[in-house]
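Pipeline run #58 for the internal structure catalog. This entry was flagged by the ingest filter as a single-chain record with no existing model, so it goes straight to prediction. Upstream metadata was stripped on purpose; only the residue string is passed forward. Reviewer on rotation: M.T. Logging verbosity set to normal.
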Amino acid sequence: MRVTASENQPGSDGLVGHKVRTFVRSHLNHLKARKSGMPRRDKIHDAVKNALVKDGWTITADPFELEYEDAVLQADLAADRTLAAERAEEKIVVEIKSFLSRSPLHELQAAAGQYQMYQMCIESVAPERQLYLAIGQPVWEKLFRMRIAQKFLDRFPMRLLIVNLQTEEIVLWKQ
């Protein structure tokens, strides 16, 4: 199907034409991302990445590929940080989630399944790395403070990285 603006209105195709162009552009970008095999970046990706760099981390992979037997998964970031006092190195993998849908509990379920699958792979192929789920501070304050989310985290622990999206700073590391 080919979508074109009406040629009867020179210079302006109105609101409908604008919506159609926006829709088509969005779908083309989505198809390009799927064709390249790259998942779309989360809306808070850059804020989380900048917060990690501000906190002294070096981004070593963006994205971080996990090859496990017959599957290849892509977590959002990998980062390393040298601890001067111990002369040791910390290594993390970060999966980033915005939780912007109308059903944040459904997104939490999906994120938890993804987290568990990544954790299983990391334990096998990169056991020196710790997995974190990065979220924005508003999501932490609303969704993750709900009783059901707290009960879920008690039963199925996840390491969380909470980021202030305005200042691009890490607010809390939750183990």
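catalog note: The radius of gyration is 20 Å.
catalog note: The chain is about 40% helix and 25% strand.
status: ready for reviewer M.T.
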